[in-house]
């Protein structure tokens, strides 16, 4: 089917098995470990969706909070009138449309201009939402009362993460993926060989935005009370970039290996040093940059290379006739 | 070398973490999660954390709480929620399932209390909120029967502001023209929504109305707009940063009105510290009965133990909420959470803000408006509580 190589089939199988295994977690713990795992899968989904666009294009987007917040608000505004699954789809559509508009306006500019624009965008959307609410309602906070438990949110986020992975995998094998690789390597060359670079980037940005908005929509019932400052929290944008870079964006699973240690370390620090969190986080960052400059994937690849080197001579030795 | 140092650091950190929860069950373990960083860290550092410190010290110095026939001392496990609902939920879960604390202190602010209410309810802890003011209290109390709401509703607070203005109008000290301003967030909208009909009913005319987004730096246009409308009273439902900025602009631009009212932050000691004599006569949300002996003693003790003055509103309520928890544990005579929740619902408690009972999980007796007078923020309007005096006309800015 689809001409998968044995390696690809194996990777897909491993991925599916890991997700199935992770899905068992709520059966063992309903408390703290489930709660921290929700954060881990949330950021796994966000970082992978972010890297889906930023990995191949090398455009650093700080618009994550804008898409995430729009997703959260879709649920907040619609939960009383529409069924929840429909709201998830609406959130994805809003995220995609927003990304399409932004992409059309900005993806011809690059580098630092794009970074600043996307950061400003999150703030702009937040102010627009605030302004609209001021004009049309007398309350700013929205209540999301559902029967959803933390386990449901966990499973949905896990499914979303799986979907992001599968989409990335399919894109990488498609014409779009090939175009992106060329663009990432050299945009001028890409244009010369006839690739519509702007169109390819916009499509990719829309897919990424839709997934991020959906993650926001899934998490909304967890907040219960939604306000612009929490929904459009700029920290979300920064954390996503930091975690993805920590993991490394060269591999599909790269961001994931950044998310897991980062979330656990951050939790360890904030629970054990509640009064000095920021100082310890700063020191941890310095240590990370100093110790693993190429991200966790870079480190893993180095270890793998060293291991191969060490085992290779041994294998040769074994082949020698006794 | 650096790597080795880092590993050593990490190892010692792990050792500290492992050593901490060595406890014998002759102590009551309390859990607290509130902002130590993020936008509300400043407010929590004034209103929330020092009161936990003060109350625990007082209880422990007295030998602890009497539970059945045992004297039990208090121990605190504290976390930073980074002013983030998601983080707060995670903290509560950690307190309940990993630290297994006996009781949980209320989180800080309306938003964080509402965000954590369902999870606190799920673990069955009594949840005595002391810094949440919203019109949802009755609904929340029904939805989460373990939750108790002590700071009143937005409607009460808005009605209090109108009451104070009405008193000044009846004395002939101000006319009926009001400039009404609010921060565009949950707090500002709820209060302005409640204030408008109340102002109209009291015969006031709104001559200027404006809202501004949370985090706005430049409030000069708001004040100049208000000044152009020549009001007799200026009312702003504002948050701490804007409260300071609006007051400063009013002073700079010489917006002289007989009644100048600002929102959260007016009751902070830093307000009088910043504006000195010019603060005199400024009205604001909250207030305490500073003439009351219990409040006087509390102010002095707070200064002595924490080295800082409490704010003149939710600080006292936060302390009183802890008193309610302590007395309820003693009344129940057990650490059983359900028994303590029941004791709170049915009991009457002697606190620094007076006698408190919450038959429907809501405390209706609150101070609503205060006014600065020589470094003290006196309550001048309240529901069901004695006040420290009547509102007076604000002198012109100095």
Question: Could you explain the architecture of this structure?
Answer:
The complex is a heterodimer of chains A (322) and B (398). Chain A is 78% helix and 1% strand. By secondary structure, chain A is mainly alpha-helical. A two-stranded antiparallel ribbon of chain A has the order 1-2. In chain A, α2 crosses α11 and α2 packs across α12. At the A-B interface, α2, α5, α9, α10 and α12 of A face α1, β3, α4, α5 and α8 of B.
Percentage of residues in strands of chain B: 15-25%
Q: Please tell me the overall pLDDT of chain A.
A: 85
Question: Using only CA atoms, what is the Rg of chain A?
Answer: 21 Å
Question: What is the number of E strands of chain A?
Answer: 2
H/E element sequence of chain A? HHHHHEHHHHEHHHHH
Please compute the radius of gyration of chain B using only Cα atoms: 22 Å
Poorly predicted ranges of chain A (pLDDT <50, ≥5 residues)? none
Shape of chain B: elongated
Give the beta-strand count of chain B: 15
**End-to-end separation of chain B:** 62 Å
Largest interface (CB < 8 Å): A-B, 42 and 43 residues
Run of helices and strands of chain B = HEHHEEHEHEHEHEHEHEHEHEHHHEEEE
Features:
heterodimer; A: 322 residues; mainly alpha; two-stranded antiparallel sheet; 78% helix; B: 398 residues; alpha/beta; 7-stranded mixed beta sheet; 4-stranded mixed beta sheet
Describe the protein's topology.
The complex is a heterodimer of chains A (322) and B (398).
Chain A: H1 6-22, H2 32-57, H3 64-78, H4 84-106, H5 112-136, E1 142-143, H6 150-173, H7 175-185, H8 187-192, H9 197-223, E2 225-226, H10 228-231, H11 234-247, H12 254-272, H13 277-291, H14 295-319
Antiparallel strand pairs in A: 1-2
Chain B: H1 2-19, E1 27-34, H2 41-47, H3 49-61, E2 65-67, E3 70-80, H4 85-97, E4 103-104, H5 110-122, E5 127-129, H6 137-143, E6 147-149, H7 154-170, E7 177-184, H8 186-201, E8 205-213, H9 220-228, E9 233-237, H10 240-253, E10 259-262, H11 269-275, E11 283-285, H12 293-306, H13 314-332, H14 337-346, E12 348-351, E13 354-357, E14 366-373, E15 376-383
Parallel strand pairs in B: 1-3, 1-4, 5-6, 7-8, 7-9, 9-10, 10-11
Antiparallel strand pairs in B: 2-3, 11-14, 12-13, 14-15
Helix pairs in contact in B: 3-12, 3-13, 4-5, 7-8, 9-10, 13-14
